[in-house]
Amino acid sequence: MEHTNNVKLDLAGIGVGPFNLSVAALLADKPQISSRFFESRDSFAWHPGLLLDNTHMQTMFLKDLVTAVNPQSRYSFLNYLVQNKKFYRFLSAELQCISRPEFSDYLAWAAHQLENVQFSTKVEHVEYNGENFTLHTSQGSYQADNLCIGTGKVPAIPDCAKAHISERVFHAAEIGLRERDFTGKRVMIIGGGQSGADIFINALQHKWGKPQSLDWLSRRSNYQPLDEAAFTNEFFTPDYVDAFVNLSPEVKQQEVTNQKLTSDGITQKALLTIYQELYHRFDVLKEDKWVRLLPHRTLTQMSSLGNSFQLTASNALGQSMETHQADIVILATGFEAPYPACLDSILPLFDLDQHNRYQMTPDFEIQWQGQQRNKIFAVNAGMHTHGIAEPQLSLMAWRSARIINSLVGQAVFDTESGQGMIDWLSPSALVEQLVA
Ligand SMILES: Cc1cc2nc3c(=O)[nH]c(=O)nc-3n(C[C@H](O)[C@H](O)[C@H](O)COP(=O)(O)OP(=O)(O)OC[C@H]3O[C@@H](n4cnc5c(N)ncnc54)[C@H](O)[C@@H]3O)c2cc1C
């Protein structure tokens, strides 16, 4: 029988990735708000299958759990450096961007100190009785007045690959979770984003043994860089998000589409590492060519061929179909966000939009039937409502502060960030929008 806890929470968090962890860390200084964040894993892990060698952050370390709104918090990255006695060496290392293993270590350091984070607790089912929520978990049930959904995303697998998922065909997110041996195998990576690049670098450097061949297939027209220019970074500011939330759904969609590479390109550092490694192997050491770069191709079909696989791809440049063969296929094909299964019974109460997506207020609150009494916040669930910063770390502390302010109904955190560099919407445009 399920154990019922007598705890009544102001806020229950579902999932503890970086985003809900940020909310939890900011709430640690607000003991008047009772909160607990439930995580199914036994300990903190940040995309553990992708914590490979040579993987670096796409964002600066000051974009941590708390600093943007509470630099005095003990859960800042700077405090992590000081407490772990590496502050001076960190400075001397002059790291332009830190490694993902280090940021992951920082997140775990914070998570394991926080008393409002509870591991080994999977939220299985959430019910609403008109007054509050009951969370049925693997460790008993809990009651809460408000929720914050932070369950993250799950691997997206192309339809044609689904029937082949196995030890030899797997999503990028799985690669580091078990021993791999690519020695003498034909390896193909599908997907030209950052994860594809990270895996390509490691395979090129024989992390999993020396493959017979290594192909990197991408739908994009080339191996395209993340746009990290100064003005592009303005998209990752509160100012831009505040302008974005007031746009029409059509304009929002257009903005997100136009900004694809701003969030999904490959870092310059990774691109240069790859280019230099290829140059060294094939132009300096004169190794026989065992690597192929295949941009402009979309995987359309996959079939088994004995112990290997035949992959069909359309080549947008040549306007032709191609077939390739591989023994190992790694799908660096991104992530998707289905509704968390634990919300099944309350989902019918949500006001979804015409594309069945959450509709959200500027304060990251899902619009739903019980909203006047109980709030449901969601993080990493509203790129369509808040723009491309939403799945990113850049504004997580600011977003967490907005959520907490909305939860308590007053500005316990100052979320004003000063006037931005760019006038996204001039006052007259705002007036016209209101009139229309
Ligand atoms: C490899 C990789 C590198 C990235 N690097 C960067 C970067 O450098 N900079 C940047 O800005 N962004 C980066 N991102 C994007 C983004 O910051 C991360 O995806 C981030 O982890 C998202 O955080 P999250 O909290 O939404 O989800 P997640 O990190 O996915 O965490 C969700 C958590 O919820 C738990 N959970 C799910 N369901 C339940 C349940 N029912 N009950 C209890 N627990 C549950 C899961 O176990 C998981 O721990 C990266 C993404 C990836 C995949």
Which features characterize this protein?
five-stranded parallel beta sheet, FAD/NAD(P)-binding domain, seven-stranded mixed beta sheet, globular, 436 residues, binds flavin-adenine dinucleotide, 2 domains, alpha/beta
Q: What would you call the shape?
A: globular
Structural class: alpha/beta
**CATH topology name of the largest domain:** FAD/NAD(P)-binding domain
Computed over alpha carbons, the radius of gyration is 23 Å
State the CATH superfamily name of the largest domain: FAD/NAD(P)-binding domain
- List low-pLDDT spans: none
Major β-sheet profile: 7 strands, mixed
Average pLDDT figure: 95
Cofactors and ligands present? Answer: flavin-adenine dinucleotide
* CATH architecture type of the largest domain: 3-Layer(bba) Sandwich
CATH class of the largest domain: Alpha Beta
- N-to-C terminal Cα separation, in Å? 57 Å
Note the beta-strand portion.
Answer: 15-25%
Order of helices and strands: EHEHHHEEEEEEEHEHHHHEEEEEEEHHH
| Structure annotation, total helices | 12
Helix content: 25-40%
Instruction: Please tally the β strands and state the result.
Output: 17
Number of domains: 2
